[in-house]
Design goal:
- The chain is α+β, with helices and mostly antiparallel strands and 319 residues long.
- The protein has 2 domains: 52 residues, Arc Repressor Mutant, subunit A; 247 residues, no CATH class.
- Helices cover 41% and strands 9% of the residues.
- It has a 4-stranded antiparallel sheet. A two-stranded antiparallel ribbon has the order 1-2.
- The N terminus and C terminus are likely disordered.
- The chain binds a DNA duplex (21 and 21 nucleotides) through helix 2, helix 3 and helix 6.
- One of its GO terms (cellular component) is nucleus.
- InterPro entries: EOBI/EOBII-like_plant (IPR044676), Homeodomain-like_sf (IPR009057), Myb_dom (IPR017930), SANT/Myb (IPR001005).
Length: 319
DNA sequence: AATAGTAGCAACCGCACGCGG
DNA sequence: ACCGCGTGCGGTTGCTACTAT
């Protein structure tokens, strides 16, 4: 593959060629070897010292996004996707900040993921990416589904697309509690440590050891749709609902425990009034069906996003 | 089989910020 | 206060592989 090069004039110094474009294995080896011996930093000096005809920025980018040993490659797990959705709701396009909470993932990868997967869906729906409707669609459709999938696939690392060990996040407790007024008790979904769930039956403030996000839930869904789940014994959520003790109502929201991640309270509890997400989420018993989750959900989740949106057209949803 | 269109991703670019001289 | 340098970040581009026609 041919590479592009630029003639770069560096003041009074002699001109030299700076390579651009894709990195070759030889360049990668040079960079890896040099950093292994001398460490990171001073990228311009590093580039020269390592004998690379690249600028410092290029070396830094190559190392951080591709060569660094703890870089995690492969498809994003449902947990990671959920976290991205949540953190983006809170912080917007602060990719590096979001990446700090996804071990082994780079800001560039997350940014690409958002632009290619998430924004694609928004375009197809003719929804403004940062619009209220889009955010609500994320809250009311994608997040619940991701959570459902997390419950059904407690060990995402079993996915054939993953050869790396469990990420830090995957290894941590990941639970969801949905509180519904009609149920008078939380719905709790857990991926790894069901014993932890009891703590979520407490008010938020009392669950001090956990960092939580709160996913807004439209009134229409809370009052009329969640009970539908109970009517479908095959629903992933049915067991959790059925096991609730119906003893107390704490709040009308989703709690998402994200373990030890340093995620502050998510400000997603704004009231939602549209009817759309409700119809989208549970229409035709889709949510309760047992066949909408594949075996390899971690790897194929977003491949099914198109199907996910097929229940109602945007104009029908009023979003 | 050939071509066009599209998606995914690596890499680049420009800007902003912090810091030391 | 100013300047230069190194670094980090978000947006954008361009290449390649894949898919549809």
């Amino acid at each position: 593959m041919s590479t592009v090069s630029d003639r770069v004039s560096n003041g009074s110094q002699e001109e030299f060629e700076l390579r651009r474009g894709p990195w070759t294995p030889e360049e990668d080896n040079l960079l890896i070897h040099y950093i292994t011996c001398h460490g990171e930093g001073r990228w311009n000096l590093l580039a020269k010292s390592a004998g690379l005809k690249r600028n410092g920025k290029s070396c830094r980018l190559r190392w951080l996004n591709y060569l660094k040993p703890d870089i995690k490659r492969g498809n994003l797990t449902p947990q990671e996707q959920l976290l991205i959705l949540e953190l983006h709701s809170k912080w917007g396009n602060r990719w590096s900040k979001i990446a700090q909470h996804l071990h082994g993932r780079t800001d560039n990868e997350i940014k690409n993921y958002w632009r290619t997967r998430v924004q694609k869906q928004a375009r197809q729906l003719k929804i403004e990416c940062n619009s209220k409707g889009f955010l609500e669609a994320i809250r009311c459709v994608w997040m619940p589904r991701l959570l459902e999938q997390m419950k059904q696939t407690p060990s995402p690392s079993s996915s054939s697309s993953h050869s790396t060990p469990l990420s830090t996040m995957e290894a941590q407790n990941f639970t969801i509690t949905s509180l519904h007024p009609n149920l008078q008790a939380p719905l709790t979904l857990s991926c790894l440590q069901p014993s932890k769930l009891e703590s979520l039956n407490q008010p938020i403030e009392e669950s001090s050891s956990m960092t939580k996000s709160i996913i807004g839930f439209p009134d229409s869904m809370r009052t009329s749709q969640l009970p539908d789940i109970l009517e479908h014994p095959t629903s992933p959520a049915h067991e959790a609902f059925g096991n609730s003790d119906n003893s107390s109502l704490v709040n009308d929201c989703y709690y998402v425990d994200i373990g030890n991640y340093e995620v502050e309270d998510f400000n997603l509890l704004s009231p939602m009034s549209v009817e759309g997400p409700r119809d989208l989420l549970f229409s035709d018993g889709q949510m309760a069906g047992s066949n909408w989750i594949g075996d390899d959900m971690a790897g194929t989740l977003w491949n099914n996003m198109d199907e996910l949106w097929q229940f109602r057209k945007p104009e029908e949803l009023g979003i």
